[in-house]
Amino acid sequence: MDTTIILVGPMAAGKSTIGKKLAQVLDCPFYDVDQVIEEKTGVHIPWIFEQEGEAGFRKREHDVLNDLMQRQGCVLATGGGTVLLPENRSLLKSRGLVFYLRVTVEQQLRQLGRDPGKRRPLLAKGNPREILKNLNALREPLYREVAQHVIEIEQYRVPELISCIIKLAKA
Ligand code: S3P
User: Fold this and answer.
1) Contact 65, 88 (CB under 8 A)
2) Cβ pair 49, 57 in contact under 8 A
3) With 80 as the cut, is the pLDDT of residue 169 above it?
4) pLDDT, averaged across the chain
């Protein structure tokens, strides 16, 4: 398949897990924006937030997205906040097929487990439930703006989700 499948959505929606499996089934490369940032810098994301603030992280995120968007025929998982910058939204809308993986706060909290702030710096400074609720409210229109398809992931098991995305991508 020549199309690039791009997954957007909030933290712990399963973008990386689903993206990896999707790429396996489609037999194509998988890229994860967060993972590429960590590989390039050699440090974990919380450390980048600590040293450079959110703005520094967003700049790195933009550069990596820009680079990955040049590739075709792959699956790409974005970070929860990749849709924040207007230039990222333009990039996401310009190429590929974008799926918004929609999830409830309850499901996010279940996925994040006991220490939601450990790998997610935005959740480290406050009540994770409140922060997720506020972020989702702010970002929901941005995910919808870039996505051709919205998938309510709670309705599916992972294999069903993969088939559903493939069917839509090939339609
Ligand atoms: C962020 C989500 C994270 C990561 C960073 C910021 C966000 O990615 O990019 O911690 O702004 O929602 P995941 O969505 O993969 O957790």
Assistant:
1) yes
2) yes
3) yes
4) 95
Of 119, 122, 134, best ligand 1 pocket probe by most atoms within 8 Å of the beta carbon: 122
pLDDT digits (tens, 9 = 90+) for 81-91: 999 999 999 99
Name the residue at shortest CA distance from atom 15 of ligand 1.
79
**171 Cα to the center of ligand 1, angstroms:** 30
In terms of Cα–Cα distance, which of 94, 101, 42 is closest to 68? 94
Ligand 1: residue whose CA is nearest its atom 3? 79
Tens of pLDDT along 37-58?
A: 999 999 999 999 999 999 999 9
Cα 132-136-141 angle, rounded to 5 deg: 170
Tell me whether strands 30-32 and 75-77 are parallel, antiparallel or unpaired: parallel
Q: In what side-by-side order are the strands of the sheet with 30-32? A: 30-32, 75-77, 5-8, 97-102, 149-152
Phi and psi dihedrals of 163, rounded to 5?
Answer: -60, -40
Residues in the chain: 171
For residue range 121-161, list pLDDT tens digits in order. Answer: 999 989 999 999 999 999 999 999 999 999 999 888 999 99
